[in-house]
Amino acid sequence: MRDYQLPLSKCIAMMKLLAFCLFIISLINIPIAEARIRHYKWEIKYEYRSPDCYKKLVITINGRTPGPTIFAQQNDTVIVEVKNNLLTENTAIHWHGIRQIGTPWFDGTEGVTQCPVLPGDTFVYKFVVDRPGTYLYHAHYGMQREAGLYGSIRVALPDGKSEPFAYDYDRSIILNDWYHKSTYEQAAGLSSIDFQWVGDPQSLLIHGKGRLNCSTAKPPLKADVCNNTNPECSLYSMTVVPGKTYRLRISSLTALSALSFQIEGHNMTVVEADGHYVEPFVVKNLFIYSGETYSVLVKTDQYPSRNYWATTNVVSRNSTTPPPPGLAIFNYYPNHPRRSPPTIPPSGPLWNDVDSRFNQSLAIKARKGHIHSPPATSDRVIVLLNTQNEVNGTRRWSVNDVSFNLPHTPYLIALKENLLHTFSQTPPPEGYDFANYNISVKQEDSNGTTSDAIYRLQFNSTVDIILQNANSMVANVSETHPWHLHGHDFWVLGYGRGKFDRINDPKKYNLVDPIMKNTVPVHPYGWTALRFKADNPGVWAFHCHIESHFFMGMRVTFEEGIERVGKLPSSIMGCGETKHFRKP
């Protein structure tokens, strides 16, 4: 038989074809992470609860407050069916930190992106969680957030990917302050001509639990109202295994208070803020403001035969009636989870230690290898002076002496359906009297105005926001305001003390490794500079996250790319001039 030999060129071609076939076969066997659908069904209603031993009506989700944690992976679709069984109240739920790219109508901001959910109705939220990290959800109607309607969102990386830091276990903690007065009582006092401030909270809660001393409460409380033996108000206990590293996702949803959080005898390494990786730094106590989320790493490397205190306390507010520190038990297994530590709970930092809080803000930088560089310059600069004003005899919080009122027709619908007559078309001010306004003193003329006008931003433009703090209507008082932006993350370019210098301070901006966040504080008598891209079509709220300040008008609204927003679902309609848009 004669040998048959292929030409060399044909052999090479066949080998290439074989290699390509093997590559295709290998792809078939590669596990590909598929986005999933996470479906939740919630019933929202009022129930009597005693989170700090004091019995009152609270809003629960499926019988719980805080509500159920939403667990998902990056790029999953989350569907939440919300049944409003509050009987006499509307509601809406905001998904705090979720950018709602492509679904601006499910941001959950009543009056901005949707009409409220009526009593007895079911509303379905559907959105994609496009980034891993630690986020929140909470009511965005009236003052319902502080009545108990809140919870956590934890978004993990897809299978096969890992964080840039190692840990053994993952836990979530929400910090909150707690009032005994109903939100109705508080709202009535805030909006009356005879202004009544909400005052200090009665308790601080760690993951929904606190403990008021019923026997020393003033005025005295009856046993059927306040009972320290009620198991509902047993201290929150987090069980840990010695010799491990824990990722603690710490969030704040306080109505008023800026907080410090600390764990007795343990350092905390900050590694994440608002869903973005932080260049690690170590703290003894973590300062945290309403709306912020952090991840810290904690090593359980202390003496294992006892438990340790975790505490939180109020900072930034001088008060004659501060709430007692919030307490929890850092339980070293196998000690009993209710066994009290043998020590006195550690006291937190002084309330007026502004330097330490300011320095923590400066320390938060983007992690090397995970830096998202900001645009070098901006197209527009908006300065927001945080002011307190009198408007028609009522006390208001304002921006540039203008206090915000929501219209009856949500902006997203009004803009998309060309109902521009439903809100003012006069643009809000983009600054204040820089030359003559003294931020350090109480103003002689504190009169302000109200408006429902919004900022119209050019799509895909770069916008700088300068938050400028000032003295309130009380002499020698400038409060800390945490500001939260919906629909975006922003670069934190810098913090400063005193009045922002429009010429020199921008030269000091951090354009190298600024952290990206969605919530940021402006410190007393100081300024904070932010930069963001107006690249998410929709209408987005930007507001102080202190519940009473928000209620009193400390907020603005941005519109961008409204012409790019898709067809609006009829489910978000039904109020104002959209009543006839709602399909039965």
UniProtKB/TrEMBL annotation:
Pfam families: Cu-oxidase, Cu-oxidase_2, Cu-oxidase_3. Its main location: secreted. One of its GO terms (molecular function) is L-ascorbate oxidase activity. It is found in: Secreted. Its cofactor is Cu cation. One of its GO terms (cellular component) is extracellular region. NCBIfam families: ascorbase. Dimer. This is L-ascorbate oxidase. The lineage of its organism: Eukaryota, Viridiplantae, Streptophyta, Embryophyta, Tracheophyta.
